[in-house]
Design brief:
Blueprint lengths: L7 H22 L16 H17 L4 E7 L3 H7 L5 E6 L3 E2 L3 E3 L7 E11 L5 E12 L9 H6 L4 E5 L17 E6 L2 E7 L6 H15 L9 E3 L7 E2 L5 E6 L2 E8 L6
Parallel strand pairs: 1-10, 3-7, 4-13
Antiparallel strand pairs: 1-2, 5-6, 5-10, 5-11, 6-7, 8-9, 8-12, 12-13
Helix pairs in contact: 1-2
C-alpha cells in the first residue's frame, strides 16, 4: 500500500485485506465478482482498493497463475462517460486469461460479459515500448455499489476478465502505425465505433508513464515482455451468445473472437 498515505483507518483495513482478498477471489472464481460491494455500508479508499487488488493477485500467484502485465483503464472519453468517473486506474493481467486470436468464448463463464477494442503495447527490458498491437479486452461488467466508484473498479481489477491477442506478426513497432490510423470495432459485421488508436492525446507514452508511476507507489515493477493495455477511446459493449467480435486497424481485421451460442459445447 502507498506508505505515505497510511492512516489509522487504513491500518485497520490492512488487517482485513487478507480476508477480503480470499472472498474476492472466491467470488471471482464463482463468476460472481465483487459481492462485498453489495453491502452499501462497505467502502474503500483508492489506496485500500489497490491493496486489495494486489492481495488477490498474490493469492492467484500462489495458486500457480502468472502475471503477464497490466491494464490502464478509464481514460478514454467513451468509458469516462459510461462510468461517470475519470481514471486512470490499474488492473492486473494473467497468463491463464490471455486467449489466442479467433478464440471461442463461453459467455456463461463471465458475469455480464462485455468487450472493449483497444491498443496494447509490450515493453522491453528497459521498460520501453518494443511493440504495439490491438486486442479485445474481456470484462465482467458489473458494479454492485449504489454508485459506480473508482475503488470498486480498482478492487475488482478494473473489471478485467481476460484479453484476446492477435497473431504475433501484428505486434509491430510503434513507428509502423500512422498517427492517422483508425481502430474500429465490429459486432456481427456491424460497425459499432471507430476512433484513433489511443484514448488520450499523449498516446501510449501517457499510459505507460502513468502505469510506471502507479506501480512504483505500490512496490511493483514492469518486467520485460509485460503487456500493457492502454485503454480505449471507444466504450465498453455488452455481448451476447452467438456474437462475433472483430477489431480492425485501418479496415483490416487484426483480432477477433466468437461468443459461443447458448449451450454450445
Amino acid at each position: 500500500m502507498k506508505k505515505r498515505h497510511i492512516t489509522e483507518r487504513s491500518k485497520i483495513m490492512i488487517n482485513n485485506i487478507r480476508e477480503l482478498a480470499r472472498r474476492q477471489l472466491s467470488d471471482y472464481q464463482a463468476n460472481s465478482p465483487g459481492t462485498c460491494f453489495s453491502d452499501h455500508n462497505f467502502n474503500l479508499s483508492v489506496n485500500e482498493a489497490y491493496a486489495l487488488q494486489d492481495a488477490v493477485t498474490n493469492l492467484r500467484i500462489k495458486e500457480g497463475e502468472r502475471v503477464i502485465g497490466y491494464k490502464v483503464g478509464c481514460t478514454g472519453p467513451g468509458t469516462i462517460e459510461q462510468f461517470g468517473m475519470e481514471g486512470p486506474i490499474r488492473g492486473t493481467l494473467f497468463s491463464s486469461e490471455a486467449l489466442k486470436n479467433r478464440a471461442r468464448i463461453d459467455g456463461s463463464e463471465f458475469c455480464n460479459l462485455a468487450i472493449e477494442a483497444e491498443m496494447a503495447l509490450e515493453v522491453d527490458s528497459e521498460g520501453q515500448i518494443s511493440s504495439v498491437f490491438p486486442v479485445i479486452e474481456l470484462h465482467n461488467f458489473v458494479f454492485r455499489g449504489q454508485k459506480k466508484s473508482l475503488p470498486e473498479l480498482i478492487a475488482n481489477n478494473g473489471i478485467n476478465a481476460g484479453i484476446v491477442l492477435p497473431e504475433i506478426h501484428w505486434q509491430k513497432p510503434l513507428k509502423n502505425f500512422s498517427e492517422k490510423s483508425c481502430l474500429s470495432l465490429y459486432i456481427n459485421d456491424k460497425a459499432i465505433g471507430e476512433s484513433g488508436l489511443w484514448p488520450t492525446p499523449g498516446g501510449p507514452i501517457y499510459s505507460l508513464d502513468w502505469l510506471k508511476n502507479n506501480l512504483v507507489d505500490y512496490d511493483l515493477v514492469l518486467r520485460s515482455g509485460h503487456i500493457v493495455l492502454s485503454g480505449t477511446a471507444l466504450g465498453l459493449f455488452p455481448v451476447q451468445f452467438g456474437d462475433k467480435i472483430a477489431v480492425k486497424v485501418d479496415d483490416i481485421i487484426v483480432v477477433e473472437c466468437f461468443i459461443k451460442k447458448y449451450k454450445e459445447t
